[in-house]
Amino acid sequence: MPNEVKDNPARRRYELDVPGGQAFIDYRRNAGVVTMVHAEVPAALQGGGLGSALVRGALLLAREHGEWVVPVCPFVAAYIERHPEFQDLLARG
């Protein structure tokens, strides 16, 4: 399955087009570190796995670009905790 999550640097967020709008993660990027500060899925679509697909796609993009991740957003942090295959992306220290 291709990654449908796109990086939109002009808006400083990862985006996933969904029926009726967009799901997104706002971020700050600095010196090879992307800090994911807020994730949002349209209310009518919450609970259907779109948030997880969004986070997974954003983490794959971070990996592809060689970036470390700081998950300030609780949803992103919980996703990484549940998926050890992404824990190597966590910025240390």
CATH topology value = Aminopeptidase
Please describe the biggest sheet, giving its number of strands, its sense, and whether it closes into a barrel: 5 strands, mixed
| Number of discrete helical segments | 2
Classified in CATH, the superfamily is Gcn5-related N-acetyltransferase (GNAT)
One letter per element, helices H and strands E, the order comes to EEEEHEH
Number of separate strands: 5
Share of residues in helices: 25-40%
Which descriptors would you attach to this protein?
single chain, 93 residues, alpha+beta, 2 helices
Protein model, in words:
26% of the residues lie in helices and 33% in strands. It is α+β, with helices and mostly antiparallel strands and 93 residues long. It has one domain (6-89): Aminopeptidase (3-Layer(aba) Sandwich). Strands 1-2-3-4-5 form a five-stranded mixed β-sheet. The model has no long low-confidence stretch (mean pLDDT 93).
Write the layout of secondary structure elements.
Blueprint: E1 6-8, E2 13-18, E3 21-30, E4 33-40, H1 50-64, E5 68-71, H2 74-82
Could you give a quick summary of the protein structure above?
Helix content is 26%, strand content 33%.
